[in-house]
Amino acid sequence: MKAVPVFLYHSVSDNPPSWIAPYTVAPRVFREQLDRIADSGLSVVPLRRLLAAIHGGPPLPERAAVLTFDDGFADFYWTVAPLLSDRGLPATLYVTVGAVHPPGGHPSGSLLPPAPMLNWRQISTLDATGVEIGGHSQTHPQLDTVYGQKCADEISGCKQRLEEALGHEATAFAYPHGYSSPAVLRRVREAGWTSATAVENKFSSAADNPLRICRLMVRSDTSEQTFQNWTRGLGARVAPISESLYTRYWRGYRRLRAAIGSPVGGPPQS
């Protein structure tokens, strides 16, 4: 199977809030990484191209990559989008709808700590210029630790709010923190999302699960050598990969902590 690096970014900034700083890449480093992708011979393709290949459609280029961005930080509009546009690179931006700045107001209904976030006007502009806008839940919970109507609202409610704002269908979803479960995947499918990305820190492939596409998270401490290896298809396993016993144990532990009112905290992992 050909390794397809699906790169996951969050904020691209020189001065991020402390809570997201470990998951932030400086603009200089981001430019260097884009150059490294180009120099490696990778063809950056839209997420829908990977999805089509997973479903048996047209094959991907010999060496393909995908760019994705989570949460909806304002620096995507001011920093990331111009750099992508200059290079003609497609990308998918997953928005936590409860963190979006409404006209004349402030974000509400989000579990994300304070940070400069996109507003709906900016998101609509990005959509009009070709950036794929996807959903990242309403409030950014660990979806595999919430149940019933609350879980459904996070998944289907996000889709409804996003489509109302964009004026067209949205089909791409990303799991907050990268966490999912068979039940969450089922709800995502039933809500009408046709693709969903996790983290896994593994390469995707044309044999990947379209509702749990593997990604490689680029962090502030991702070394040049690690990133270079990723562009060469080295340094990580290739999907599809079965859920490990550790993943199931970790999910059970987080569910227990949530049930007793002491959820596992920390900055978001995606």
TrEMBL record:
<dbReference type="InterPro" id="IPR002509">
    <property type="entry name" value="NODB_dom"/>
</dbReference>
<keyword id="KW-0732">Signal</keyword>
<dbReference type="InterPro" id="IPR011330">
    <property type="entry name" value="Glyco_hydro/deAcase_b/a-brl"/>
</dbReference>
<feature type="domain" description="NodB homology">
    <location>
        <begin position="63"/>
        <end position="270"/>
    </location>
</feature>
<protein>
    <recommendedName>
        <fullName>NodB homology domain-containing protein</fullName>
    </recommendedName>
</protein>
<dbReference type="InterPro" id="IPR051398">
    <property type="entry name" value="Polysacch_Deacetylase"/>
</dbReference>
<dbReference type="Pfam" id="PF01522">
    <property type="entry name" value="Polysacc_deac_1"/>
</dbReference>
